[in-house]
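User: My instructor asked us to take a sequence, write out its structure as C-alpha cells, and then describe one feature of it. I'm not sure where to start. Here is the sequence I was given:
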Amino acid sequence: MDLKNGQPNETSGLVCAHHHLYSTLARGMPAPPRTPRTFREILELVWWRLDRAMDLEMLEWSAKLGALEALESGTTAIVDHHESPNAIEGSLNVIAGACAEVGVRVNCSYGITDRHGPEGASRGLQENSRFLAQGGNGMVGVHASFTCEQDTLLAATELAQQHGVGVHIHVAEGVDDIDAVDRLQGLTQTSWLLVHGVHLPDSHGLSGHLVHNPRSNMNNSVGYAAPGRLGLPIALGTDGIGAAMLDEFRVAYACARERDVTVTPDLVWEWLEGGYLLVPEAAEDRVVWSDEPVDPWRVAYHTSIRPISVEVAGEVVVANGVATRVDAAEIRAKAAEQAKRLFSALETTL
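Assistant: Let's start with the prediction itself. The C-alpha cells for your sequence are:
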C-alpha cells in the first residue's frame, strides 16, 4: 500500500505500530531513586514503577492525550501495548473508549507477565480474553519472554489462537531477553508482532512482523536493530514516545544512514508503510499536510511539516489543525491534573 493519497500534499493516515499510551503522562515525571545504568535498571527504576502507580482515571486521560497528539501529527491508527498491574480489569476498555472519543483507530492488548506472580499473569490473560470476547479490536499482549514462565507464554499463544488474533510482544530488546529465540521457537505465527528485535540473530527462525522503534532503542542504549537483516515485514513504532510517525521516520532514516550511506529514504518509507499490513483501514484515512510534495526524500529533511486536516473513516477529526471531536485544551488540562496524581503516587511506589 502507498502513503500517497492522490494529491501532492496528501497522504493516508499514518500508523504507530507499537505504542504505550499509558506512558503519555510520564513526561516530566520525577527522577528515579538512582540513575539507571543498564536496560534492566531502566525498567525496574522507571517503567515498572510507573505502570504500578497507574489507576484507571490516570489511564483514561493519558490515553486521550496520546490519541489527541497522534491525530495532531497525522497518525490515525495506534497498535497499543498496555500494563497497569494494580488496575488491570477494564483497562483495555478504557484505552479503546478514550481513542474512540478522540477519533483514533486503536488495537489494544494487555502485556501479560509473571513479574507479579501467577495471579498477576492470570489476570492479564483474563483481561485480554474478556476484551477480545466482547468484540474489542486487539491482540494478546505479552510483556517479554524473560518476564514470563514458559507456561504463561504457552497460555498466551493458545488464547491468541482461540480468538484468531496475534501476540504483541517485546522480543530481544535488551540482553536480558537474549534467549527469546529459544523461548519462542515453535510458538510464533505470521500474525505476531515482534517488537524491537535488537538482539535477535539473523537466523532467528521466528515468524511475525518486526516493529522497529529506533528512538526508544537509542534512548535505552540497547543497540541498533538493523531490521532489514531479520527477513520479516517491518513496521515503525515509537514504544510510547508519542505517535509522531514522520518524526520516527526521520530518526529511523538517520539511524540507518549512520551505518550505511547507501540507505535511501524510500527504504525507510516502506517501513512506515508497513503499518498498513497491521491496520489496513488506515490506508483509507486522509491527511492534508502544510507543505508539498510529501515525498520521502523531502520529508526526511523537512522537520516543520504538519497536518492541516485529518479524516478517519470519512469523518473530519482535525480541521485547520484543530481536533473537532474533543476539546483539546480540556484534555491537556485534565491530563496535567492526572500527571500530578501519578507523580505523587510514584513517590511511594518502590
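For the description part of your assignment, you could build on this observation: The radius of gyration is 19 Å. Try explaining in your own words what that tells you about the chain.
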